[in-house]
Amino acid sequence: MTMLKIELLKFISFTLLSFLTSLSLAEEISSWDQLIRKGDIFFKKSDNLPFSGLLQSYYPSGQISLIDNFKNGKQHGDFISFHENGNVSMSGNFKNGKQHGWWSEYHPNGSIFWKLEYIEGVEQDGLFRMFHDNGKISSEVTYKDGKPISNWVHFDNSGKKSKIEYYENGKFFYEEHLD
Predict the structure, then answer these.
(1) Residues 114 and 161 occupy one common structural domain
(2) Domain that includes residue 177, residue range
(3) N or C terminus of the chain with fewer C-beta within 10 Å?
(4) Helix or strand holding residue 6 (H, E)
(5) What one-character DSSP code corresponds to residue 30?
(6) Helix then strand then coil, % of the chain, to nearest 5
(7) Is the Cβ–Cβ distance between 143 and 125 less than 8 Å?
(8) Are residues 88 and 34 in the same domain?
(9) Rounded to an integer, what distance in angstroms lies between the CA atom of residue 54 and that of residue 169?
């Protein structure tokens, strides 16, 4: 066996051992009640140390309600919450305690409610739409620098405009209800 193959095998073995060790050290808790938040760090109440591991909680029915990952006291990794019927309610990712990447919320029937992109906790500029559970648009507005730069237009279940919220310089000005 060549030196390169031996070194490669050592590297793979070390990497696998490190991964398996981290899995066995990852702690799992079943309730937010087991954590306390101090600033932007979550501590485990039982030992007052920053929590690293998995929070997996359940409805009284036994159906899963939440999967959330933590690293060094901050939410880090996949976040998924569920409706009691088992469908996903919200999904996204945390990076060092901040929302990062695409986040989505869903109606109980599984249809999309809204979808929004975050980069290290900051909502990205652009068109934001919300949807009725029948898939039709319920409202839309365009954001820039965290503020509306268009009027927020609302639609009924059939797609007809029902209300317009008027914004001026990023601040709500007034609303108009349509027939």
Answers:
(1) no
(2) 125-179
(3) C
(4) helix 3-25
(5) S
(6) 15, 55, 30
(7) yes
(8) yes
(9) 42
Residues 131 and 117 in one domain: no
Task: Examine the domain organization and report whether 90 and 142 are in the same domain.
Answer: no
Q: What is the pTM of this model?
A: 0.79
Report the C-alpha gap between 147 and 167 in whole angstroms: 9
Same domain, yes or no: 59 and 87? yes
Tell me, what amino acid is at 110? G
Structure tokens at 28: 């799992």
Could you tell me which residues come within 8 angstroms of residue 134 by beta carbon, excluding any fewer than 6 positions away? Answer: 111, 157
Tokens 């193959």 belong to 5
Please state, in angstroms and rounded to a whole number, the distance separating the CA atoms of residues 62 and 82: 12
Listed in sequence order, the residues at least 6 apart from 178 whose beta carbon sits closer than 8 Å to its beta carbon are 161, 162, 163, 164
Tell me the per-residue pLDDT of 155-164, one tens digit each, with 9 for 90 and over.
999 999 999 9
